[in-house]
Amino acid sequence: xxxxxxxxxxxxxxxxxxxxxxxxxxxxxxxxxxxxxxxxxxxxxxxxxxxxxxxxxxxxxxxxxxxxxxxxxxxxxxxxxxxxxxxxxxxxxxxxxxxxxxxxxxxxxxxxxxxxxxxxxxxxxxxxxxxxxxxxxxxxxxxxxxxxxxxxxxxxxxxxxxxxxxxxxxxxxxxxxxxxxxxxxxxxxxxxxxxxxxxxxxxxxxxxxxxxxxxxxxxxxxxxxxxxxxxxxxxxxxxxxxxxxxxxxxxxxxxxxxxxxxxxxxxxxxxxxxxxxxxxxxxxxxxxxxxxxxxxxxxxxxxxxxxxxxxxxxxxxxxxxxxxxxxxxxxxxxxxxxxxxxxxxxxxxxxxxxxxxxxxxxxxxxxxxxxxxxxxxxxxxxxxxxxxxxxxxxxxxxxxxxxxxxxxxxxxx
Length: 413
Fold this sequence. Notes:
This protein has helices at 37-56, 60-72, 76-89, 110-122, 143-152, 166-171, 178-190, 209-221, 239-242, 250-266, 285-291, 324-327, 344-352, 361-368, 373-384, 399-403, 405-410; strands at 7-13, 15-16, 28-29, 95-102, 126-136, 156-162, 196-202, 226-231, 270-273, 276-278, 295-299, 304-309, 314-320, 334-339, 359-360, 388-391, 394-397. The protein is α/β, with parallel strands linked by helices. It has 2 domains: 7-290, tm_1862 like domain (pyruvate-formate lyase- activating enzyme, Alpha-Beta Horseshoe), CATH 3.80.30.20; 352-413, Arc Repressor Mutant, subunit A, CATH 1.10.10. The strands form 4 sheets. A 9-stranded mixed beta sheet has the order 9-10-8-7-6-5-4-1-11, with helices on both faces. The longest helix is centred in the N-terminal third of the chain and has 20 residues, at 37-56.
């Protein structure tokens, strides 16, 4: 039987100073150097009101139809906002975590984030002691802004460092250098952030094993609470896909990863997800909710969301229009689709098997509304192949399985 999982909020800021050649996210270079920040935040607030209504409505699909009818009747956003408030007040779900991602959210002023957080506080929709994360680019870091973000209520900062090596950063098309990355980390500490994530990549163009490990050593020396350390991959619809750089051989990348995993473990960072490492108690609550097949509202151009409706045993996905100019136009630009029952096991496993702790039988059943018996035989087969462990009521990937997740998931397609 489906149960309501925790609820998170993702806010997408689609602009950046320059599009990185490896990036396949919905990000856009600033048009003429200017960003319609005030207008975009206004639309975000209207979008948030509608999403809160969907989260408390009897059916997100019906809520979407109602919103579209309101748009067609030309009564404008004020009516949409009023209806959304009325629906939101009827619900009791609170948002446990908020994540401002991009793009480069740190291009926006602290007041913009404060406005959205104040709206949630005023409506009682933000849970006590929420985790509120902001992604920031070291190339746009300013002490005054960092202090402003902290004052606005942001309590976790994720810095897109990628590397501390100037040559590697130039090859990645980043707008910052190693010194600016170090400065941004120091600045974050100075302005009061005591929960910091550093994003790092390995397997970079022309990168040696020693250079990859030096990046990791530099990050560890700063003692961030969290490190996201993952391999550069060439994704479709990116500049690197069209003009592939020369990457290290697969065997060299494997050596980088194995050595890095040992170094992170020695430094006290637990690998709780495929590419996420944290000091004790500092795991990303927001990302864990994604991986545990929780619910989340997605607002902003190109944002995705997921909502559970236990009463009807239904799960829904939401998707916003990708282009910022379309999102900025009046009305609701959301597509809502139901996740069919036969799709739920794979969707759940694609996320939950990324977690080192795996998942319980009860979690599978409460998050998918499907009996564990429907997948038990395949789980046991994968266990016999030493790709998964089935220990009582807990299923988790083995070390070997972590490296072969695509093969595991292929068994459920």
